[in-house]
Amino acid sequence: MRLGICTKVERASELREAGADFIEENVQTLLEGLSDDRNWGGMKRINGSALPVLAANSLVPGDLKIVGESAGFDRLQEYIRNVVSRAKRAGIKVLVFGSGAARNVPDGFDRKRAGGQILTFCKMAAQSCAGAGITLVVEPLNRGECNIINTVAEAMEYVKAVDHPSFQCLVDSYHFWVEKEPVENLTAAMPWIRHVHLADKEGRVAPGESGTTDYRPFFRVLKRANYQGAICVEALGFDDFSTVGKRVVAFIRRQWEEA
Length: 259
Hints:
Layout: E1 2-6, H1 12-18, E2 22-26, H2 27-30, H3 42-47, E3 53-57, H4 73-90, E4 94-97, H5 100-103, H6 111-130, E5 135-138, H7 152-162, E6 167-172, H8 173-178, H9 183-189, E7 193-198, H10 216-224, E8 230-233, H11 241-258
Helix pairs in contact: 1-11, 4-6
């Protein structure tokens, strides 16, 4: 199991000491798709990392709308072109499409039209990723954070509609549990699950830190499907990697072995 943590590349040495295998960074702050190449400093940061940057999240900034009257496809296409080009240079293999603010459906906006806008964006982004050997994964977000693509089952509708090997699905334990999604939905989606995020349901803290979350049933679904992708901690308030990080990594690996 390849285990990572979402944080800045500058924390890589601490993560390595904690037992992590890779970093998941932030697209907007690392790849800076709205800036030109002359002003992009992300590669220098990546070159100094003690761990590989396997994935990056926060794909689209909230003010670059995918859905709604102000959505601009040409600007999105240019932005994604920049992001994918830099991700390829950085060795990033997975880009995470959560971007709740960018894909949120405005009040009164036709939801069918919104779905079509998201689908058009995903097809474009998948094509761009294909040429760079990158997988784009759609992330279901709970209804408190976004009002569309809230479950694995809903995400799979887009995966199947796009029907492209570079566009797959992510499952985040926190969103999965908050939405009270049946485990059967995850089981059915496993052939398309290419990335996993972890956080406890209680407080969205790092795995094991709430003291009440058992990941073993969740992990059993992954293991039964022979999941070979990466697993990454995406939790709130998690930045003490020298002590808490070791505990969290040990907890995850132990729960995985016991699943």
